Amino acid sequence: MQIFDASAVAQPLGDIELVDEAAGPVLRLRGEVDSAVVAIWDATERSTGRAPVAVDLSGTTFLDARGLRLVVRETESARRSGHLPELRRPSASIRRLVDLAGAGPLFATVA
């Protein structure tokens, strides 16, 4: 008989949160944002009724394709309303992922 040990399950190495700033909501990503972190975000009700006006990537060490898809999806409403969301302080590797995916024009990058 095999016993499941919940303590043996690896905890996600990243985090996503929505924070309010004066200009509007900001999606803040930290650590390694991969499929596991995105799945946790998607499983939790996060609706505020307002689209993020920016994505803060300053604390992000890794972003996979699913993480990028989440960033694009979460900021879509801002683009539809005529605003170009900011990508704040992406690392060179994250900026490269955004460019390779063709998502660069969807954001204003702030160094």
Automatic annotation (TrEMBL):
Instruction: List, alphabetically, the Gene3D superfamilies matched.
Output: STAS domain
Q: Which domain of life is it from?
A: Bacteria
- Domain STAS, residue spans: 26-111
List the Pfam families hit by this protein, alphabetically.
STAS_2
Output the InterPro entries linked to this UniProt entry. Answer: MlaB-like_STAS, STAS_dom, STAS_dom_sf
* Official protein name in the record: Anti-anti-sigma factor
Q: Which organism is it from?
A: Blastococcus saxobsidens
